[in-house]
Amino acid sequence: MQKLLEAITINFIKDNRYLYIVTGFKNTMIITFFATIIGIVLGLIIALIRTTYDNTRKLKVANAICHIYITVIRGTPVVIQLMILFFCIFTSRHVSGVMIAIIGFGMNSAAYVAEIFRSGLMSIEVGQMEAGRSLGLSYLDTMRYIIIPQAFKVVLPSLCNEFIVLIKETSIAGYVAVQDLTKGGDIIRSRTYDAWTPLLAVAGIYLLLTCIFSAFAKRLEQSLRKNERTNNG
Amino acid sequence: MDKLLEVKNLKKSFGDHLVLNDINTSINKSDVLCLVGPSGGGKSTFLRTLNLLETPTSGHIIFDGIDITAKNVNIDEVRKKIGMVFQHFNLFPHLTITQNMTLAPIKILKMSETDAINKAHKLLDRVGLIDKKDTYPNMLSGGQKQRVAIVRSLMMNPEVMLFDEPTSALDPEMVGEVLDVMKELAREKMTMVVVTHEMGFAREVANRIAFLDGGQFVYENSPDNFFKNPDNERLKTFLGKVL
Predict the structure, then answer these.
(1) Do A228 and B86 touch (CB under 8 A)?
(2) Which residues contact A51 (CB under 8 A, 6 or more apart)?
(3) Which of A81, A152, A230, B42 has a Cα-to-Cα distance from B71 of 20 to 30 A?
(4) Best mutation target, B92, B135, B145, to test chain A (most A CBs within 10 A)
(5) How many domains does one find in chain A?
(6) ipTM entry
């Protein structure tokens, strides 16, 4: 017990070392939050382009571009993508590491989210599109009011899973000089030569974050499911 | 007679398979045309070309004087005036019954929400489903769903209603309630094209019955003659099986 208190004092209290964790946590949250938004928006656009091509054979060029994008992003490690952004593309130091991490993780996530959304859009039966179109709704309006809301419900579990992966994936942001949660813990380790305490603390925080997010996702899913509870054909 | 729909040399093929083989017909206002025939005969495909859910391979469809197969036609404008009811209802499961009905009028006809809801409730009342107005489709029976699908189409004040086997997916005891709604529509002089296996309904309500087989209108006549003096070998065989 005495030992534990000592470890906590040295690792977190002395020299205000807890601030490494606080700053790291803040950066991890910022990166995850904005990367998520980029991922959803860009992913949905890509999914719509690809689904539209599958359904109507329109948007051929855009579909080809999306296809290449997904292949490249999913076929290369995210850490390499980040380093290319950091060391090759945004070489000017006006762009902060956090910004680069947001762009990098956002673009990476978009490729996965696109495929998640696409599977959701494809899972809605053709009759829904036909019913919308036969009422006179345009293709886009039918997508917007009829197909996407239903598809969203279908993909919600996979989408949540993707974001749990994303939260943890941001732990490599340290490669591009971002002091995220992992890096924060690592800095403390290098100062105190105590690996256990800061790394376990960091692991605990990630675990807590993903648990909270899972619980939130579960509630969202349940509230979206309300109109499905009774089913008599 | 006012011609509402005219079909000229209509052909449709899926790959090598010719589904509609040179169909010529016209539909007048207040016609109730029933399409019968063996499955695979092209009934549903023909019906679905009338609002371009299937694009014809060749031929013309003239609706209200406009050739809707022409390239520059805004098909969404045309479809506003053509209602369609599907075999599997195709209600929107994420919307309440009222929302199912008001979505299109609000978005397309720019009807105010209050007006749309009032109209929807009047129509629901007419088909005996006003107590279901705020429930979701999956809480309804098949017959109820199909009645909602019909009034959802009616919200757009269509000039013609297309029915694609509207009772085929229903339990037998629910067929009657849907046919009753359709009969009432016919009495109100709605123009209807109905793909059906309900020979009783066709005989009672239609003013024309057409027999489709092999992608062609093989035989067409008034209901009386259609059943009493079927002057066609293929039709005789078919009627022998279904009656």
Answers:
(1) no
(2) A118, A121, A122
(3) B42
(4) B92
(5) 1
(6) 0.94
| The two three-digit tokens of residue A74, written as one number | 């999913």
> Do the beta carbons of residue B63 and residue B78 sit within 8 Å?
yes
Residue B50 φ/ψ, nearest 5 degrees: -65, -25
CATH number, residue A98: 1.10.3720.10
Tokens of A187: 């800095």
Contact A138/B94, CB-based, under 8 Å? no
**Mean pLDDT computed over every residue of chain B:** 95
From B165, B229, B231, select the one nearest B202 (Cα to Cα).
B165
Give which of B135, B53, B104, B133 is closest to A144, Cα–Cα: B104
Q: Enter the pTM of the model.
A: 0.89
Across the range B156-183, mean pLDDT stands at 96
**Structural domain harbouring A20:** 2-232
Q: Is A225 helix (H, G, I), strand (E, B) or coil?
A: coil
- What is the rounded radius of gyration, in angstroms, for the C-alpha atoms of chain B? 18
Give the model confidence (pLDDT) of A74-128 as tens digits.
999 999 999 999 999 988 778 889 999 999 999 999 999 999 999 999 999 999 9
Strand B17-28 to B3-14 pairing? antiparallel
